[in-house]
Write a structure and sequence with these properties.
By secondary structure, the protein is α/β, with parallel strands linked by helices. It folds into three domains: 197 residues, no CATH class; 149 residues, 2-Layer Sandwich (Alpha-Beta Plaits); 245 residues, TIM Barrel. The strands form three sheets. An eight-stranded mixed β-barrel has the order 8-9-10-11-12-13-14-15, surrounded by four helices. Strands 2-3-1-6-7 form a five-stranded mixed β-sheet, sandwiched between helices. Strands 4-5 form a two-stranded antiparallel ribbon. Helix 10 packs across helix 11. The radius of gyration is 41 Å and the shape is rod-shaped.
């Protein structure tokens, strides 16, 4: 027999593998006993047409039960019908043969011991019922036919006594065996429950109840073999670590569970998994592109909407990348890589949701290679400054510029984006080196222009011991006043070295710099940050412009910020409609592609030239 054949044929788990094995081997033994009894009857010269018919009937029924147990096809039904038929046929044949005075001496011992096989294949409830039938059948056979079958004289009283004794003994024997079967059934139930629980733990993420990586990939492999159209999406939560740090692990676990619940719903969602940490994956049926695209958009909207954590509402944000089987990849490994690559592009560009694009994503750069190339680029001066204008509320007067970094002439298929190389610079501890380099290049070109210069500063930069000192020396070297400088920080600063960073910001403010809270509205947007840090201006994130509902939030947030006495700037503006809605607010500043994209700065003597 093949190894684990019963496990392989028992995917439904309607009965335990052990029950199938026992039934199969009892059938094998029963077939042997049936053949042995047939041989004994023949040896005793009792061969008859009825004997041959009984032998063939029992062999067919036993074979059918063995087939059902081996392949788990209607196992319970055929087992009960087959065993019941054999038992009933044996007794009815015995009574009929005794009635016509053709009973064999082997019949009664067979009727006494054959039911013992039932204990191996029947449950305790059936055995209790059979024990009563067995006792009555033995009583009737012994009282009415036993003496004539074996040819001895017996009084009516003795026949009754013997019938009662043998009937009771036979019935009690089966009741005892029913108790044994009850214990066996309970053991089977515990083993089956343990098996199912073990399989579940091996296949599920214990926190979210989603599939784990191994189980998910098994489902993906089966879907790939089916050759039905589907897509794979990889998801990485954007702001989970800061949320975990601020609210604690209990809230973090709650958010992961809510994300899991959102992923596991949907008409075309066939499997959802948590790979670990804040990484998730989804398998979606794709009967047509429109249905699949709509489903993936619904999933993204659900997991990026605000979540109720009991005492507050949070929005973690997510980067999602997906790829279609058989369209974006011809092999399973390529499909998984494509979805992961699209997700990393979503995270790097801030798009949030991206489908794999071979033309764009095949140019992805590995992190180790990017780190080595970045060190070299910084030394060779390939990290260049770029300026994006910030305008007045009318949109016609430039009041300042934001200084940004760009990697040019990298020698790669495409130049790395800031979203790709800025994290590398921070990981290498080179963010300040980047800042001093682009300031040295940009200030000579813009120091004679009116307006302020805004620079982005991360928590790791503020934590460096000489940040304020080196910043002051850089500006003095170029004759650029501190009063024209704005330091843009994000709420991430609240989660790392809070007291030390606050003190550095106070020092910068005392020297004349303005402190700007950037990306307000993109994360948790806690109003406590406005009171916690020495803030002069608030920049409202572009996410507040995405719909009419969020624009209402934008208007309310602007009123709140200005009423609290802060300057206000709205960034990410790309539509004139937004400008018309905002133009009534006095002192408002605007920034976005509508007014100018970031442009590289080149300095030629005293002339400023902006080149795309």
């Amino acid at each position: 027999m093949r190894k684990d054949v019963f496990s392989r044929n028992n995917s439904g788990r309607t009965v335990s593998d052990r029950s199938q094995r026992i039934a199969f081997w009892v059938c094998v033994a029963g077939a042997g006993v049936n053949a042995l009894l047939f041989g004994l009857y023949v040896y005793n010269d009792e061969l008859s047409a009825q004997l041959i018919a009984n032998f063939l009937i029992y062999s067919a029924v036993i074979g059918l039960i063995a087939w059902a147990s081996y392949y788990n096809r209607y196992f319970r039904l055929l087992l009960c019908i087959g065993v019941g038929f054999i038992y009933a046929h044996m007794w009815s044949s015995a009574f009929y043969e005794a009635w016509i005075d053709q009973a064999s001496n082997l019949t009664f011992p067979t009727l006494l011991f054959a039911p013992l096989f039932l204990v191996l294949v029947m449950g305790h409830r059936l055995l209790i019922g059979v024990s009563l039938v067995q006792g009555l059948a033995v009583f009737g056979y012994v009282k009415n036919f036993l003496a004539s079958v074996y040819g001895f004289e017996q009084s009516a009283g003795d026949a009754l006594t013997m019938a009662i004794q043998l009937g009771a003994l036979s019935s009690v024997s089966l009741l005892v065996l029913a108790a044994v079967a009850y214990s066996r059934d309970r053991t089977d139930a515990r083993l089956l429950s343990l098996l199912k629980n073990t399989e579940r733990l091996a296949a599920e993420d214990p926190l979210t109840g989603l599939k784990n990586r191994r189980s998910f990939l098994e489902v993906v492999e089966r879907r790939w073999d089916d050759e039905a159209p589907f897509l794979i999406a990889f998801i990485d939560l954007d702001r989970f670590k800061p949320l975990n740090d601020e609210f604690g692990h209990a809230v973090g676990d709650l958010v992961l569970q809510k994300v899991g619940d959102q992923l596991n719903t949907g008409e075309f969602v066939r499997a959802a998994a948590r790979f670990g940490g804040d990484e998730f994956a989804v398998l979606i049926d794709a009967p047509d592109c429109n249905s699949a695209e709509l489903e993936i958009k619904k999933i993204y909207d659900r997991i990026t909407s605000k979540m109720d954590i009991g005492t507050d509402h949070v929005n973690v944000g997510a980067s999602l990348g997906y790829a279609y089987a058989f369209e974006d990849a011809n092999e399973l490994s390529q499909l998984l890589h494509a979805a992961d690559t699209a997700m990393r592009r979503s995270k790097a560009t801030g798009l949030g949701l991206s489908r794999f694009d071979a033309e764009r994503d095949d140019t992805s750069i590995s992190l180790p290679a990017l780190q080595e190339l970045f060190r070299r680029a910084l030394k060779l001066g390939q990290i260049k400054p770029a300026l994006q204008p910030i305008v007045s509320r009318s949109g016609t007067v430039t009041v300042g510029h934001e200084l940004l970094a760009r990697w040019v002439d990298s020698g790669l298929k495409r130049d790395p984006t800031p979203a790709e190389f800025i994290p590398v610079a921070e990981r290498l501890g080179l963010l300040n080196d980047v800042l001093w380099s682009i300031l040295d290049q940009a200030i000579p070109a813009i120091k004679d222009l009116p307006g302020f210069l805004a620079i982005n500063v991360s928590p790791s930069q503020l934590s460096s011991t000489r940040f304020i000192e080196d910043l002051t020396l850089t500006l003095r070297r170029h004759g650029f006043p501190m009063s024209r400088l704005e330091l843009e920080i994000t709420e991430q600063i609240a989660f790392r070295n809070l007291e030390e960073n606050t003190e550095v910001l106070k020092q910068a403010r005392a020297l004349g710099c303005k402190i700007v809270l950037d990306d307000f509205g993109a994360g948790y947007s806690s109003l406590s940050l406005l009171d916690q840090f020495p803030i002069d201006k608030v920049k409202l994130d572009k996410s507040l412009q995405q719909s009419n509902n969020t624009r209402g939030v934008l208007q309310a947030t602007m009123r709140l910020v200005t009423d609290l006495g802060f300057e206000c700037c709205v960034e990410g503006i790309e539509s004139k409609d937004v400008v018309e809605e905002l133009s009534q607010r006095d002192g408002l500043q605007l920034q976005g592609f509508l007014f100018g994209r970031p442009e590289l700065v080149q300095c030629e003597t005293t002339l400023l030239r902006l080149v795309s």
